[in-house]
Amino acid sequence: MIRIGTSGWRYPEWRDGFYRSVPQRRWLGHLAEHVRTIEINSSFYRLQPPSNYRKWVAETPPDFVFAVKGPKLVTHVKRLRDVEDPLKTFFESLALGDKQGPIIWQLPPSLRFDHAVLRDFLAMLPPGRHALEPRHESFRSDTYFDLLRAHNVAHVVSDAPTFPCIEAVTADFAYVRLHGHDELYISSYSDQQLDEWAEKIHGWDRDTYVYFDNTMHGAAPRNALDLMARSTSPARR
């Protein structure tokens, strides 16, 4: 199972391209007609009420899946320490039902790998699919990979020019975030680059979630559709 989509959907920059002639209230539904998953970003910035999740569920097809970005209060403010209460509050707010996909925990670039801190954090996570996106070179470590494998947590394979791309598969599913190879959040992926990512994804031979985060100039939905076409081509079925 390979699900490919975008990181978020509320981008005015898409108005004259992908969302042309689509009213803003229909943006989520329109995107969900073309991709099989979307990453919810607003949950990173502030706690979302359950009513928002239920609304998004109602606007998407039955077989659709959302990934949800964990709150920055946990990852950036508290930096994974003493997070029992905010974790409980966050998970109690989720109301996606069968459309609940992985939870993505994006770490700040300044956060270095600390085995004890990460071990304690992973032990607090409830059952389900979780993915961790570190942005510091110190995470390029077998000790880190082994810790994720012990908890069946996916290391997020990230492609960006400003933080390391550490390619490792550590769970029974894989998670990829493509932020723009040359310009962060901006640059589009070439045909050759998309071919290379398609090869990697199929080589992992497991459920995979891929999100394009190169959103600022509207490349994300185009790239997502192009990678989907490569992933479902007759040669790969």
TrEMBL record:
This chain belongs to which protein, by name? Uncharacterized conserved protein YecE, DUF72 family
